[in-house]
Amino acid sequence: MKVYLESFGCSASQASAEIMKASIRKLGHELLSPENAGQAEVYICNSCTVKYTTEQKILYKIRSMGEKGVQVIVSGCMPEVQLEDILHANPEAHILGVNAVSRLGDLLFTIEQRKKTGIPGGERLEIRTSEPQGFLNVPRERSNPNIHICQISQGCNFACSYCIVKHARGKLLSFPPEEILEDIRSAVADGCREIWLTSQDDSQYGMDTGVKLPELLRAISEIPGDFKVRVGMMNPFSVLPILDDLVDAFDSDKIFKLLHLPIQSASHSVLKKMNRLHKMDSVNEIITKFRARFEDLSLFTDIIVGFCDETDEDFEETIEWVKKYRPEKINISRYSPRPHTKAFSFRNLDSRISVKRSHQLHKVCEQIKIESKNEMIGWKGRVFVSKYTEIGDVLTRTDSYRPVVISGSDLRPGQYDEVEITGAKPGYFLGKITG
């Protein structure tokens, strides 16, 4: 059959899509490119439900594909929390639960058998599993052959009032460390030179088993080979109990000095309403300790603007925090009420306020980005070769994960070299080899 898979959402969702694509190929089906999506007999939507705009795009796609007579399979988070919405858009949509990635073949087999026997319809199919299956040590069709996304856990033990993902993925279940290590060893043997550790919150890893994230990072660092590790998002309230040990574990040549620490807001009144279990002094302590050990640290954060009852004073606290701590990257989201969450019943701000604050914060972030990029021009140091760009240049990373593109080089992924940053573009630096 001709199958088109479209994936939305986070890096964990991307990893699931890579696993499903490999399964499609293994079963002998044709995996279509976006340009050929119109030829699809089966459309797989690997869904995300974090934002209302994404949800609406997904519902439109599964409705329109169904109206064209295409068999639709919906996987990812939406089936766990918005099944009624999916079936309202397409009553014949098949469902693959968020934990059942490895069972895609069962759905495709049944759909194919119905097609062969001349029964194109039939009752819709639904496969779910109570616990995650097939996330590690399985074939992948990677978006980039040099990057391996390793999901280290499923679910979350906390309950931020705005977050629907907790309802979709359930309580924390940390995957066995030996399986994670084997997964990474296999990826390195396959030629991957950049490993992304992903989950709903990396610093929660092991809270349910006893083997915490620092211990896992030290074990990963001992794996032979030329590769680097990008640690994914970590919430301040789950970092704090392991802070000193985590800083020590980051002090490895194989771990990028990148701290992705979402604050969501710098106002304590907003954080309380969000049920975020941290104070800003704890956030500042985490950043200070990481920067004290790693002078060239990159700081990423996430901020929600326009949350319920956020005042101008609350928002100004966030602006002032950003100006003081100057993150290299901020993922800015306008608050979007999600069903099944506690905040869904809260009073929302006028959307015009959220738009205005979003634009204001974007301006502040752009100014910081420009200033920090200009400060980096002339920097000299070691970089790690990550991957090739679409036009044949090489994308390298500093130890703190800053992207530096080198033209006219024969460098290969996994190598190190000395470079000088000579210029800056909106999304990356330009550099030349000096080594």
From TrEMBL:
Note accompanying the cofactor annotation: Binds 1 or 2 [4Fe-4S] cluster. One cluster is coordinated with 3 cysteines and an exchangeable S-adenosyl-L-methionine.
Pfam families per record: Radical_SAM, UPF0004
Ranges of residues in domain MTTase N-terminal: 1-113
Catalytic activity, EC: 2.8.4.5
GO MF annotation, one: 4 iron, 4 sulfur cluster binding
Catalytic activity, as annotated: N(6)-L-threonylcarbamoyladenosine(37) in tRNA + (sulfur carrier)-SH + AH2 + 2 S-adenosyl-L-methionine = 2-methylsulfanyl-N(6)-L-threonylcarbamoyladenosine(37) in tRNA + (sulfur carrier)-H + 5'-deoxyadenosine + L-methionine + A + S-adenosyl-L-homocysteine + 2 H(+)
TRAM domain boundaries: 374-435
Domain of life according to the entry: Archaea
Xref: PROSITE patterns: MTTASE_N, RADICAL_SAM, TRAM
Residue stretches making up the Radical SAM core domain: 142-371
Keywords: 4Fe-4S, Iron, Iron-sulfur, Metal-binding, S-adenosyl-L-methionine, Transferase, tRNA processing
Name of the top EC class for this enzyme: transferase
Cofactor requirements of the protein: [4Fe-4S] cluster
Family, per entry: Belongs to the methylthiotransferase family. CDKAL1 subfamily.
Described purpose of this protein according to its UniProt entry: Catalyzes the methylthiolation of N6-threonylcarbamoyladenosine (t(6)A), leading to the formation of 2-methylthio-N6-threonylcarbamoyladenosine (ms(2)t(6)A) at position 37 in tRNAs that read codons beginning with adenine.
Name of the molecule in the record: tRNA-t(6)A37 methylthiotransferase
Source species: Methanosarcina mazei
